[in-house]
Amino acid sequence: MRLNRRNLRKGATGIVSIIIALLLLTSLERFVNEATPLEELTLLGYQNDGLIGANVDCGDRALNSTLLVHSSLGLHDNLTRTVRSLQHYPEIRYEFEQQSLSFENWVDKNWVELSGSAVWMARYQVYLLVNRVSYYPSGNLAQPTISWLRGRLYDSAWQPLDGHTIDWQGEAIAFPRIFDVPISWPPSGQIFWGAEDPRILLEENVPDAEPVIVFNMIEGLNLRRRMYIHRPFSRFTTSLTIAHEEPHLVEKNWSPFFDPSRGEGDDPASVPRPSHHLHLVYGFHPLRVLRCDLRDGRCDWDYTEEASTQLVPDGPHVDGDMRGGTNFVPVQTTTSSSEPLLRLWAGLPRTHLDGGCSEGATYRPELMILASPAPAEFYILYSSDALELGPAVLNQSAQTHPCSGPHIVIPYAIVRWDQRPGHDLMAVSLSVADRTMQVVHLQGVRALIDRLPVMRTGMPDLRTRDRDAEPDVPRKSRWSAAGKHVLECSVSAARNTSLENVKHAERLLTGSENLR
């Protein structure tokens, strides 16, 4: 949905003053201060309340909400310095020596930083950002020869901490740094080598937890693109392999999350220990979830959705789908007697939609909530229309020409989320046109979640909720079918919003908008 263009500071002054007073209570909130304009985002979403039946449509699941969006912060770095740190590769020295530009001009013409994913490390009171550094001598940014992963630290106000070190098990680790992922220079003429699409996450409230970086990379001369994990402090890297399955030619877009209820046998009264396992959403349609061992990369299927089309109609057909975006973050819930094991996660996957822009597919983030009422059981509980963040992340030119590059908006991480009542502030890192690294703050996500029926009722069998009187449908079948329908409604709404934004921009360019 489109942002309401009015600045909330020009109206409802008393309400906004209360919001600002609350924002000053923590380091995260102090950064989002009175100088940061707020925009109001009216968001259409679709909720899963277990309702099934042949006559259920998207309107039956609709839930309108409002988020506040703070203007984004752009993250920049000294790219020349970054490339100099890679000169231990003889191939890089050779590539530079074969041309006549100065080193700085060569870097400006052939190198780029993108794909910023970050996490807040409370133990050190810093943000750790991991991004991709790519070399593209062809001049085509979409076809880089090779990419590396780089880490940089920021303080709570997103000021870079150059030359900063953190202590990890007695070792001082200095930043910024290129992470020690084993990367080979590609054979002549090959492209897309090295590490791509990094996502970083950290277990919450686990004192000794080490961040995990999830990324994809071409594996050797077989040219298969596989998923990997990297531990940036202990320098451990391994590929992720699904047990008893041959890897596909391309594996990417897996969405990682930790399940705090699936621990390693901790005594509940003791300090929690780092998990040996990581969950990843392999795909959303159908919903499929992997559980991977962080010690050796072995993955097993933890959940595979089996949604019968006889329980709920197919959603509107759309030329596109939902793919991985950010990590998923646990939602802090109170224990319910009706559903004592219910766990929720919030994430921002992204739609890949064709037909809106002739220049290519449109990518937009959506807000999604996953639910798990029992071990190895997952459902899509909520999924929104596209988050059209407008002037919060796009400049005026990008808003006027939505197909010239801004048709690609990719969310990379939920960096930090203060879920406390009265605070409700989420930091998200994203990229526009694969050229920027930005952090935007969303306010009201937790309030949206609290409005979902499951927060009051849990996820019972709901045998009386059938639109067409299906008395004996088990919970798994019911909630899977309804969740599949929620996803289809979400993707369809995102497509409609994408088309409307293009038409809106065209009307503005022709002047016809003023006549409406």
From TrEMBL:
<keyword id="KW-0735">Signal-anchor</keyword>
<dbReference type="GO" id="GO:0016020">
    <property type="term" value="C:membrane"/>
</dbReference>
<comment type="similarity">
    <text>Belongs to the BMT family.</text>
</comment>
<dbReference type="Pfam" id="PF12141">
    <property type="entry name" value="BMT"/>
</dbReference>
<keyword id="KW-0812">Transmembrane</keyword>
<protein>
    <submittedName>
        <fullName>Glycosyltransferase family 91 protein</fullName>
    </submittedName>
</protein>
<keyword id="KW-0808">Transferase</keyword>
<dbReference type="InterPro" id="IPR021988">
    <property type="entry name" value="BMT1"/>
</dbReference>
<dbReference type="GO" id="GO:0000030">
    <property type="term" value="F:mannosyltransferase activity"/>
</dbReference>
